[in-house]
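Page 37, continued from 36.
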């Protein structure tokens, strides 16, 4: 009746009859603040075709209102006015009638609101819940993240989605709202991937860390291991080199245990060359949760799931980045003048004659005669200041309820910083299809792989040690080319190979290789009945590494200016060509039953039974020929027939294992898990071959107890968990030593050494004594952890303490057989060791106005100790203390404690003997050592532990992420401490024998005030006095050359901007983000002269770490 009455009043007021309809589609842009409604109406009539009708006696036209809209429909404008005036209205075509009665029409109290929900990366969220707070009125987002909902004018929208923090948005008259969801660090409903399955994070009892693929892509380095640095506590990687395509696997581990097992889509596979854009998630199993993978998972497991298709329209995503690479640090060498001056000084210090006259030194200083007195900067001649790197990825995903797909193509082109055709190219592809065949049966098909192309000069590779040794060692007073003629590379007998020539593939040779990896897999999943599923999985992996290396016979030259002749010097007399192929085939089969159900809403039960069988076939063949000419054609059949060699081998490895696991959760707060692995290995006797290895874990969600809810209402989650597991290992066992076998012996001497009638032949010999009792050595891991979060996930933490003990580690008894037996002793299960440490992660998520802020930090500490260690009996008490490794920490450095530098000859002669020559070889400035045992002699008996090892015990990372109105920033710090950096490379001022160059830092050394006057005073410096061949006293490993090191790297900083969607929709683009990234731009450390992650003994003598400045774009259609 009220609606009828309102309509009648409106008819009488306006003098004509018109019925209620929706407003027209004209758009209004208006901005007025506290203006009389009369003026506002006039303005609307001026800018539109609408005309107003009202009774001035019943409507206060002088009342002031505020309206601020852009491209809004007329209904929205009128609602804003009506709410402030307390009136109502009706619309007929372009005519608007105002009434003094408040609006009560339901249609006029509500409006249609539309919008888009995206995640923190701007990707549309499918299936997010959008509802009016306090009502059941709601909807879900479609495949593009869009929604449309009719809501009251003053409604508050609630937006929720699993894994993200809920948001509330006040409508306040808006007709469009776009929402960006922030990740919920609490994520109790999140499902994480574990061994052969998934589990809820809330009820997980193992030490499992997770990363999303988007987080990995934030630091998109070619080597996937580098993308993990600082992000996961306990995962350690010492990035010692930036050489394209090189993987430093020996410096990658979890908790210091050793290199972990990597599982990609259910199969053991390498992962360093995977394109980060293909990865959906990465989960790291660090405790007994890895036990289901058996001996392969003894050092922890990294599980990678690649991206799968989504139920959506086809989406095309393209990413591109281009970067400029440059060395992080370079240890500078002397120029020609410095070299001549300080080499003279070193010779004079040793009582020898000067190498260069004063006139020659002056010519090097002035550079007045560069042909005869050159100054060559070998580093600048061979190393570029910057080198480009570019990366592309194109992928498409989508699908329906019946079939979903993901296809990806990637390309990486990384050039070397060397001035040569050294480069690394990688081509990636990935295809994942999931199809629902029937309501109970679905299939998963996956294909993937990559092709890696390496092109190197012959004298590079192996982290560039040989090349960079030549760069640092060659004297700077010799030219690149004889007589500056580029047809003649210069070299003298007293120098290393010419570094510029080493980079010339035509002159000195090349190393090329192509690695092809292909994998395919098929899985069938069948639901037998509710809760019980069967799965059959088959995978095939193929790898082939093809190498071709050509070392060219080459001649170098010196130039005789008097005779105007080039004099040849042969450095590489014979050429050599090697070709090698290494095909590798592996099949993996898994058959499993999985039961999962909930009883009475309290008892969650899940059980898994799985059989796994793996078979690997390896085969390699190598052929080599030598060449007596310098113009050799790089083909095997062009080599000398009298100088050829070949070898090869093949092997088959088979492993089988039975896996079982039972999980039980009561009321969502008490958890228990039992698992086992029954593994077999070909390396042991049949009765020792199979081992049973169990694991148990339990958890208690204390936060679910009522007393805790009452005590700490701010707490969202507090979970105590513990695990123990036993894993067998055979990786260090020699194969088939349970039987006494035979092996081939090359160049076997018949008749005895030194016998003129002896002959050399190939033959066979008994390989070993049999040990039928050799068996698995066992690794037992205990882990205790505590997880918590507060205030809706705004603050969270995870803490773990672990202890691991290894028993029965294989070793050979310290007993010898008579040499006439010719048989070595077999391995036995003798040694033992342990590891211990802790990990702590802290995180906070805040929303301050329009700013979303996330901070995550982690720290991890781990050390290893030998327990029992088979070794020779010590000769005396000191030897027992010095050499007995039993019950002693590993990763330590032994050496001398230095107590300063000698200040005078008197001090030298009145100090303990430390050169074995009555101190006669010592000079003022030489390093002085502590006589620990007080016997007046500095020798090996005075060594002590002077530091930790070269691999850090303590590692940490800090991530800062924020976004504001389309702008985003992501900063990653990474660092380490509790390790010792030993500057072995600097212990001698000049590199190697002959004419080797000198380190510039050694110019600050003890020296005579006038090196031409042997009686002049010694002038103190930082380093000892210069010697040509170095000095045995000063080169001893001591605290003088060690640093208790630490470093903090700004590992990555990325700043991006996402273009607003309303600007992109007109050109058919759904998402567009541009960004700039800096990798390794800053390092803070107490390590002087070299990079804090440098390889011990080779500081600055290898391909250096890189800093990279990149620009990129991510676009979706």
């Amino acid at each position: 009746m009220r609606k009828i009455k309102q309509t009648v009043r409106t008819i009488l007021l306006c003098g004509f009859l018109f019925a209620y309809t929706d407003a027209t589609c004209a758009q209004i842009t208006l901005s007025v603040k506290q203006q009389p409604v009369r003026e506002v109406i006039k303005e609307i009539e001026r800018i539109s075709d609408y005309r107003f009708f009202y009774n001035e006696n019943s409507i206060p036209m002088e009342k002031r209102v505020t309206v601020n809209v852009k491209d809004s429909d007329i209904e929205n404008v009128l609602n804003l006015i009506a709410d402030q005036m307390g009136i109502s209205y009706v619309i007929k075509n372009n005519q608007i009638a105002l009434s003094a009665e408040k609006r009560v029409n339901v249609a006029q109290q509500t409006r249609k609101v539309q919008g888009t929900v995206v995640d923190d990366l701007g990707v549309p969220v499918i299936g997010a819940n959008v509802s009016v707070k306090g009502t059941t009125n709601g909807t879900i987002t479609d495949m593009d993240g869009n929604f449309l909902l009719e809501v009251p004018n003053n409604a508050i929208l609630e937006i929720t989605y699993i894994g993200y923090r809920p948001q509330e948005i006040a409508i306040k008259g808006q007709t469009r709202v776009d929402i960006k969801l922030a990740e919920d660090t609490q994520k109790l409903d999140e499902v994480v991937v574990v061994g052969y399955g998934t589990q809820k994070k809330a009820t997980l009892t193992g030490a499992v860390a997770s990363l999303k693929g988007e987080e990995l892509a934030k630091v998109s380095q070619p080597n996937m291991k580098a993308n993990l640095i600082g992000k996961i506590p306990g995962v350690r990687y010492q990035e010692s080199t930036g050489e394209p395509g090189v993987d430093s696997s020996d410096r990658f581990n979890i908790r210091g245990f050793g290199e972990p097992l990597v599982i990609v889509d259910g199969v053991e596979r390498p992962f360093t060359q995977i394109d980060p854009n293909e990865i959906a998630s990465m989960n790291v199993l660090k405790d007994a949760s890895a036990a289901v993978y058996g001996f392969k998972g003894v050092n922890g497991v990294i599980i990678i799931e690649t991206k799968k298709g989504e139920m959506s329209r086809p989406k095309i995503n393209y990413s591109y980045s281009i970067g400029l690479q440059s060395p992080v640090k370079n240890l500078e060498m002397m120029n020609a003048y410095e070299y001549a001056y300080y080499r003279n000084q070193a010779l004079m210090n040793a009582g020898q004659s000067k190498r260069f006259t004063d006139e020659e030194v002056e010519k090097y200083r002035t550079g007045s005669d560069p042909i005869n007195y050159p100054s060559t900067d070998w580093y600048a001649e061979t190393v570029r200041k910057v080198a480009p790197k570019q990366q592309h990825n194109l992928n498409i995903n989508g699908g329906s309820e019946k079939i979903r797909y993901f296809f990806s193509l990637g390309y990486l082109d990384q050039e070397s910083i060397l001035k040569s055709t050294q480069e690394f190219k990688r081509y990636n592809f990935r295809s994942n299809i999931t199809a629902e065949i029937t309501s109970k049966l679905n299939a998963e098909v996956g294909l993937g792989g990559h092709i890696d192309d390496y092109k190197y000069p012959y004298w590079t590779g192996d982290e560039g040690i040989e090349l960079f040794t030549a760069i640092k060692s060659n004297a700077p007073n010799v030219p690149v080319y004889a007589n500056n003629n580029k047809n003649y590379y210069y070299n003298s007998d007293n120098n290393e190979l010419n570094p510029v020539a080493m980079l010339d593939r035509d002159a000195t040779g090349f190393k090329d290789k192509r690695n092809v990896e292909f994998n395919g897999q098929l899985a069938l999943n069948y639901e037998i009945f509710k809760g019980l599923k069967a799965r059959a999985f088959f995978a095939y992996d193929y790898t082939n590494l093809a190498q071709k290396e050509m070392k060219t016979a080459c001649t170098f030259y010196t130039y005789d200016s008097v005779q105007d002749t080039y004099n040849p010097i042969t450095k590489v007399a014979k050429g050599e060509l090697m070709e090698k192929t290494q095909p590798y085939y592996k099949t993996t089969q898994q058959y499993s039953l999985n039961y999962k159900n909930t009883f009475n809403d309290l008892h969650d039960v899940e059980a898994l039974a799985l059989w796994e069988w793996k078979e690997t076939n390896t085969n390699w063949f190598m052929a080599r020929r030598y060449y007596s000419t310098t113009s050799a054609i790089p083909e095997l059949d062009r080599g000398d027939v009298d100088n050829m060699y070949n070898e090869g081998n093949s092997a088959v490895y088979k492993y089988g294992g039975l896996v079982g696991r039972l999980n039980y959760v009561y009321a969502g707060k008490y958890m228990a898990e039992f698992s086992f692995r029954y593994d077999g290995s070909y390396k042991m006797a049949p009765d020792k071959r199979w081992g049973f290895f169990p694991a148990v874990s339990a958890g208690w969600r204390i936060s679910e107890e009522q007393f805790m809810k009452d005590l700490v209402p701010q707490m969202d989650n507090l979970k105590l968990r513990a695990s123990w597991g036993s894993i067998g290992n055979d990786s260090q066992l020699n194969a088939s030593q349970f039987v006494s076998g035979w092996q081939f012996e090359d160049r076997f001497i018949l008749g005895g050494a030194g016998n003129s009638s002896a002959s050399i032949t190939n033959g066979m010999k008994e390989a070993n004594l049999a040990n039928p009792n050799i068996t698995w050595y066992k690794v037992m891991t205990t882990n205790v952890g505590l997880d918590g979060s507060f205030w809706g996930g705004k603050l969270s933490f995870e803490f773990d303490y672990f202890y691991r003990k290894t028993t029965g580690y294989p070793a050979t008894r310290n007993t010898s057989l008579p040499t006439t037996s010719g048989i070595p002793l077999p391995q036995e299960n003798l040694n033992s060791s342990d590891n211990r440490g802790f990990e702590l992660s802290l995180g906070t998520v805040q929303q301050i106005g329009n700013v979303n802020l996330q901070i995550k930090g982690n720290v991890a500490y781990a050390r290893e100790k030998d327990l029992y260690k088979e070794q020779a009996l010590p000769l005396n008490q000191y030897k027992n203390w010095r050499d007995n490794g039993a019950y002693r920490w590993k990763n330590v450095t032994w050496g001398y404690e230095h107590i300063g530098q000698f200040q005078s000859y008197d001090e030298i002669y009145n100090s303990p003997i430390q050169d074995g020559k009555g101190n006669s070889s010592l000079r003022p400035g030489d390093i002085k050592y502590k006589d620990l045992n007080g016997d007046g002699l500095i020798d090996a008996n005075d060594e002590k532990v002077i530091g930790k090892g070269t691999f850090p015990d303590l590692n940490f990372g800090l991530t800062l992420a924020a976004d504001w109105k389309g702008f985003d920033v992501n900063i990653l710090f990474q660092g380490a401490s509790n390790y010792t950096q030993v500057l072995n490379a600097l212990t001698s001022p000049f590199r190697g024998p002959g004419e080797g160059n000198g380190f510039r830092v050694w110019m600050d050394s003890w020296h005579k005030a006038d090196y031409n006057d042997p009686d002049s005073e010694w002038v103190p410096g930082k380093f000892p006095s210069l010697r040509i061949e170095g000095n045995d006293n000063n080169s001893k490993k001591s605290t003088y050359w060690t640093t208790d090191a630490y470093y903090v790297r700004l590992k990555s900083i990325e700043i991006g901007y996402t273009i607003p969607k309303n600007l992109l929709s007109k050109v058919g683009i759904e998402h567009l983000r541009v960004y700039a990234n800096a990798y390794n731009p800053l390092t803070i450390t107490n390590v002087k002269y070299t990079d804090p992650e440098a390889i011990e003994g080779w500081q600055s003598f290898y391909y250096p770490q890189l800093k990279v400045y990149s620009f990129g774009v991510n676009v979706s259609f």
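Residues 1-25, 103-108 have pLDDT under 50 and may be disordered. Flag for discussion at group meeting. The domain at 26-99 is CATH 3.55.50.30 (Phage tail protein beta-alpha-beta fold).
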